[in-house]
Amino acid sequence: MAAISTVDALFLKYRDDVYRLALSYTRSREEAEDVCQTVFLKRIGQKEIEPNKEKAWLLQVTANECKSLLRSAWWKKTVALDETLPAEEPAFDTTLAALLALKPKYRVVVYLYYYEDYPTDEIARLLHISRSAVTTRLSRARQALREILKEV
């Protein structure tokens, strides 16, 4: 039986984390899967990373890939399928629906802070923004969530 490669082991360990972060940015399962695949393919060509920093590296690359995707002309010209076809709305948890209504820059800090339990200084490092920007985005996201949930 063949041994599992380092990248395969990382994929098995962190695929859900990478996918969820990508999904929080893109709100599209297909795009999140593509980003996830790209992130792990990029890992193949990289030098060794310290074992305790692998997850942070993967999430940082995921955030960068998602930002690039959201800035691309292709992304800006696409229209989500659910906007073009009349369809019945799936039943969503109210909080999840409110979270998905946030702008990507707010969604991602909420995701990393509350779901991945990263401290604000680590989020700042992962997203290449200042710590104060992270705390500001968290504050604005909480306020926006309060407003959205009041309406429900």
Kindly name the structural category.
mainly alpha
Query: If you average the pLDDT, what whole number results?
Result: 81
Alpha carbon gap, first and last residue: 55 Å
Number of strand segments? 0
The amount of helix comes to over 70%
| Beta content | under 5%
Largest sheet: none
Low-confidence stretches: 83-91
Shape: globular
Radius of gyration based on Cα positions: 17 Å
Q: What is the number of helices? A: 9
Topology order in helix (H) and strand (E) letters: HHHHHHHHH
Commentary on this structure:
The protein is an all-alpha fold. The protein has nine helices and no strands.
Notable characteristics:
globular, 152 residues, single chain, 9 helices, 74% helix, mainly alpha
Structure, briefly:
With 152 residues, the protein is mainly alpha-helical.
Give the helices and strands, then pairings.
Blueprint: H1 6-26, H2 29-44, H3 54-71, H4 73-77, H5 81-84, H6 94-100, H7 104-115, H8 120-127, H9 131-151
Helix pairs in contact: 1-2, 1-3, 1-7, 2-3, 7-9, 8-9
